[in-house]
Every structure is written in C-alpha cells, then in structure tokens.
Write a structure and sequence with these properties.
Helix content is 66%, strand content 3%. With 231 residues, it is mainly α. The chain has a two-stranded antiparallel ribbon with strand order 1-2. A two-stranded antiparallel ribbon has the order 3-4.
Length: 231
C-alpha cells in the first residue's frame, strides 16, 4: 500500500514496478485514461512475449501429438524395477530427441510472466495509493476496486484459451481446463479490477494465437481409400 515514485528504493521498485507505472502513465497521457493505458501495456507485453508464447504453444502441441507413443512406451515398460525404468527413460529421451522436443521449453514463458504479473499487481495497487494518481474507470468498471464481472470474464477467457489450445483433445488436461478458470475467478474477485482486465486482454491475444497454431475448428480430412484400404 506504499506510494510508488521514481526515486523509490530497491531493485524491485526501480526495475519492475516503476517502469510499469511509467509505461501505463505514458499511454494514459496518449490515450486519455489509465484503463486504456493498462490495455496498451498489456498488448505490448504480450507482443514482446509472443515468440516465447508461440514456442510454448508449439511445444505443448508437439507433446500432445506424441502422447500416444509415450503412453505405449509406459505400458511396455510398466514394471517399476530400476532396469526397466532406465530403459523407459532412454526410449522416451530418444523419441524427444528425434522429434526435437524440449519439455522444459513450455515452462520458460511462465517464469518470465510471473514477475511481470506480480509487478503489475504492485504497480496498480501502489498507483492507487500514490497522491495525484486516480486509476478511474474502464467501460464503467472502477479499476481500483474489485469487479466480480471482470473476474468471471477473465475466467471464461482462460477457459477458452485452454479449450482452443493445450487441452484440446488431451484427456490429461481436461481437469485443468475447469480448475484454472475457477482459480482465476476466485483470485480475480479479491484483486483490483485492473488485474482481471490484464488477464482478459492477455487471454484474448492467446485465443487468437491458438486459432493460428492449433486451428481448433479445422475439420480433419477423411482418410482416402486406396484399393479398398484406408490410407
């Protein structure tokens, strides 16, 4: 709840919180309101992270495609003795290497986004306690107050991100598709509305991204029969 200023001390304040505050304020001056400033900064952040996000999405898609092979491998080496499990890990690594898949690649954007998201929370919270700054409204939503509507909208957008992306056709992620939106809604209802607004805009960008990478509504081509057999 402390105010934030250019000369606020500490690495976190100087290199994370204040730059976000400055950027939001800059776009507020250009666009007229802090709401539009938050939207603009969200879009910029997501565009900067887009290459990493695309890499994460492609990695998830590739993991989804080889899942049947991994399941078959797990069944083949289902014995829990050390020798069998070592063979299982070797075969699994071989598949990953041949397909050039790095499972850890999907984690990098999460680690990068986390300080930005926490920084956003700190920036908005402390802007609200800084003299001379009034976050105001965005489409009638008070950005400094809680908003159940924006929180629910953020949760629905998160559901659509998973529905059109990583969880599509992946039974192992079905539960996550329902847990994550509920988590977002619960968290969103206790945070300033500016944070759910950040999630809504970010998730809209993710949905657009999924349409180009996952093509969720593209119909699969029917198998072509050659000599009475499916090819």
């Amino acid at each position: 709840n402390e105010p934030i200023y250019e000369d606020s001390e500490g690495f976190w304040n100087k290199y994370i919180v204040w730059p976000l505050v400055s950027l939001i304020t800059l776009f507020k001056e250009l666009l007229g309101t802090y709401g539009y400033g938050i939207v603009a900064v969200t879009v910029i952040i997501r565009l900067v992270l887009l290459p990493l996000m695309i890499k994460q999405t492609k990695s998830s898609k590739e993991m989804q495609e080889i899942q049947p092979e991994l399941n078959a491998l797990k069944e083949k080496y289902k014995s829990k003795d050390a020798v069998t499990q070592e063979k299982y890990r070797t075969e699994m690594q071989k598949i990953m290497t041949e397909r050039k898949i790095n499972p850890a690649a999907g984690c990098l954007p999460v680690f990068i986004q986390m300080p930005i998201l926490i920084g956003f929370y700190h920036a908005i919270s402390r802007m609200n306690h800084t003299p001379g700054i009034e976050l105001g409204t965005f489409l009638s939503f008070e950005l400094a107050e809680r908003s159940i509507i924006l929180a629910v909208l953020a949760g629905l957008m998160q559901f659509m991100v998973l529905k059109t992306g990583p969880a599509m056709g992946n039974p192992q992620m079905k539960m996550m598709m329902y847990i994550m939106p509920v988590f977002i809604i619960v968290i969103g209802t206790v945070l300033p509305a500016a944070l759910p607004l950040y999630w809504v805009i970010g998730n809209i960008i993710s949905i657009i991204q999924n349409f180009f990478i996952y093509k969720p509504f593209k119909k699969e081509e029917a198998p072509v029969k050659v000599g009475g057999k499916k090819k």
